[in-house]
Amino acid sequence: MGEGSLERGALYLVATPIGNLGDLSPRAVEVLRAVDWIAAEDTRHTRGLLARFGVRTPLFSAHAHNESARAEEVAGRLTAGETGALVVDAGSPGVSDPGERVVRAAIAAGRPVYAVPGPSAVIAALSVSGLSTAAFTFAGFLPVKAGAREARLRLLLTRPETLVGYEAPHRVRDTLALLTRLAPGRPLAACRELTKLHEEVLRGDAAAVLARVTAERERGEWVLVIAGASGAGEAPAAEDAPPATSTAAAGAEREGGDAARARFIADQVASGAGEEEARQRAAFVLGPERPPRKGSKRT
């Protein structure tokens, strides 16, 4: 693919601004003008962005609720020789946003997929956090249910590398309170409204940051950057933190994890997700499902 030209039948994943519209790159604008169509998470939102840059390329939606059907449609269009772009409301498609299924369908159809990189809330938060950036784990959004959120955090807080996760405005104080209990004294940076007018980074441990998150500050999407455990085996502090496990205790812990996974999947199905999609979400939130122990039977 030569500079300034697009490959026919290819899909371009175009990163869009996470706040400041001036962060849309010249290459991104060029691609969005040159493709035959743009598949967007929210066509109303994207139409406003395109108008700012004088882009008049046709739009259609590809969001969480229609992504399966759109994935097949996109693959068919690409196979027919059309060239398209995929965008989400902010950041890169497929990263804690719709897009994974579209990309997989394009690859399965043998079509080339290219990234047009740009703004990233993860990288922006890491860079201003003041914490180690040598290695990090991106955890995406934590689970909505309190029990599942605590289970996920307990696991993540044992990791030695820096942790990065997203949190919704109405849950950030609950999550900071949980971190205060599970990892007291652990340094973190809570980043709000990155690249926007009211951008703010609150640094300290979870208790100190929580004390500064007023109702006014609660507004806006948050990125939490949390220092890694001081050692690979360090467990999160809590009054009810599990002790070092014997083989029998480990088995009990596994059974509890399996029960939590089953409840999570059931909740997702009840909210409208398909069985396979629910299992994929569980793997993303709770980690990969471990194989059954020898001698055990999975029902």
Description:
The structure is a single chain. The chain has 299 residues and is of the alpha/beta class. The chain has helices at 26-34, 43-52, 67-79, 100-108, 121-129, 146-156, 172-182, 206-212, 247-270, 275-286; strands at residues 11-14, 37-40, 59-61, 84-87, 113-116, 136-141, 162-167, 187-192, 200-205, 222-226. Strands 3-2-4-1-5 form a 5-stranded parallel beta sheet, sandwiched between helices. Helix 6 links the parallel strand 6 and strand 7 (162-167). Helix 6 packs across helix 7.
Low-confidence stretches: 231-235, 238-253, 295-299
The succession of helices and strands, N to C, reads EHEHEHEHEHEHEHEEHEHH
Task: Please write the CATH class name of the largest domain.
Answer: Alpha Beta
Rounded to an integer, what's the Rg over CA atoms? 21 Å
Instruction: Say which CATH homologous superfamily of the largest domain is assigned.
Output: Tetrapyrrole methylase, N-terminal domain
What class, by secondary structure content?
alpha/beta
Q: Proportion of β residues?
A: 15-25%
Average pLDDT level: 84
The CATH architecture of the largest domain comes to 3-Layer(aba) Sandwich
Q: Tell me the number of structural domains.
A: 3
For the largest beta-sheet, the strand count, sense and barrel status come to: 5 strands, parallel
**What is the helix tally?**
10
Q: In CATH terms, what is the fold-level topology of the largest domain?
A: Cobalt-precorrin-4 Transmethylase, domain 1
Please count the beta strands (DSSP E, at least 2 residues each).
10
Helix content: 25-40%
Distance between the termini: 51 Å
Within the largest sheet, what's the order of strands?
A: 3-2-4-1-5
| Oligomeric state | single chain
Shape by Cα distribution: globular
